Amino acid sequence: MKKSILAVLFLLFALISSSQNLKKPVRVGIVGLVHDHVRGLLNRTNPGDMEIVGIAEPNRSLAEAYSKQFGYRMDLVYNSLEEMIAKAKPEAVMAFNSTFDHLKTVEYCAPRGIHIMVEKPLAVSVDHATKMIAAAKKNNVYLLTNYETTWYGSNKVAWEMVNDGHKIGDVRKIVFHTGHKGPLEIGCSAQFLNWLTDPVQNGGGAVMDFGCYGANLCTWLLQDQVPLTVSAVTQTFKPDVYPKVDDEATIVITYPKTQVIIQASWNWPVGRKDMEVYGKTGFVFCLDKENMVVLETDQKEKSTLKAPLLSENSRDPFIYFAGVIRGTLKMGRRDLSGPENNEIVVKILEAAKQSATTGKKVVWKDYYKN
Q1: Which pLDDT tens digit goes with each residue over 54-94?
Q2: Which CATH class is domain 149-309+333-367?
Q3: CA angle 245, 247, 253 (to 5 degrees)
Q4: CA distance 340 to 137
Q5: Distance (Å, rounded) from C-alpha 4 to C-alpha 85?
Q6: Which CATH code fits 2-147?
Q7: At 22, is the pLDDT very low, low, confident or very high (cuts 50, 70, 90)?
């Protein structure tokens, strides 16, 4: 009888502890302040899902400037990733450093059981991506890649129309227009420009910065198919502004029954992240995060619609990351943020750069023999 009572009490204690743990904010460390997207996290009205416990940033003047702007305490700032991890003890980190430094972040954090989210793209190269994914898997931690377009309701509706409802027939062509006037032209910070326009630290220019969006979304829409071929042309229209990297890139990806065209540019007259999906019998255009134009199979006229917001738990990267860590959200194998998708993304980008350099089409099965 006593054993039964003790077992029940133990179970109740475990359930209460688990419930309390689910409600506890995730202890998060910020790795770097040199990516302007960090402002979205620092400017966030905290809903209680996460607590910033440390910031690794050696540039003291930058950290102080952001402290004055966003109101965090300077005792949260550490000179290095190693010091921040040792003293702040985060459960997870969000990397706002250069894409090249993503590898170091993952290889240091993963063996310590710390989950990682990086800003897009996952890595500067396939070599880096392979090492990052292996480290995350070996140490059973989450490795997420954040894209703005992941949180667009319009893209979710498009996926459902293509894959669940089959409302436009077999997909024949997908066209992406992504980019803006240029990072300098739109006012990116000096510290962001310093690495974003460096071919080593960013892996390239517009081809990496905006080519990744199309690669991420087409891989998702086509349910992790790998390409047959990748071709690309890159140019620099503004060598006085971007002397080291491309500012214009067009990538053409072929699949057995689909062609994808990614137009990534730092030369658009306006900022844009739009997608056109053409099926055999209809089409769906995502003009922005909510506005859409649709022609479904058997419809004679196109129609407009507004996509609903994503669910509250999947509306932004921070809510999503915290939910995945706490187990209240499940990250599927084909999720836009997941490593499976983003390994293919990096392979597409690397093949695109190879094609642009050589002037030759990259045949996937020959280039990626393993």
Answers
A1: 999 999 999 999 999 999 999 999 999 999 999 999 999 99
A2: alpha beta
A3: 100
A4: 11
A5: 42
A6: 3.40.50.720
A7: low
- Bridge-based pairing of strands 143-146 and 115-119 is parallel
How is residue 84 written in tokens? 């921040």
Q: Tokens for 204, please give them.
A: 């390239």
Omega before 58 within 30 of 0, i.e. cis: no
* Mean per-residue pLDDT, 5-23: 48
How far apart are alpha carbons 180 and 270 in whole angstroms? 5
pLDDT tens digits, 236-289: 999 999 999 999 999 999 999 999 999 999 999 999 999 999 999 999 999 999
Q: Which residues lie below 8 Å from residue 215, measured CB to CB, with a gap of 6+?
A: 251, 253, 262, 344, 345, 348, 349
**Is the model's pTM score more than 0.90?**
yes
Secondary structure E strands in 149-240: 171-179, 229-235
Domain boundaries, the chain: 2-147, 149-309+333-367
- CA of residue 108 relative to chain centroid, distance: 20
The CA distance from 124 to 281, in Å, is: 38
Report helix, strand or coil for 21: helix
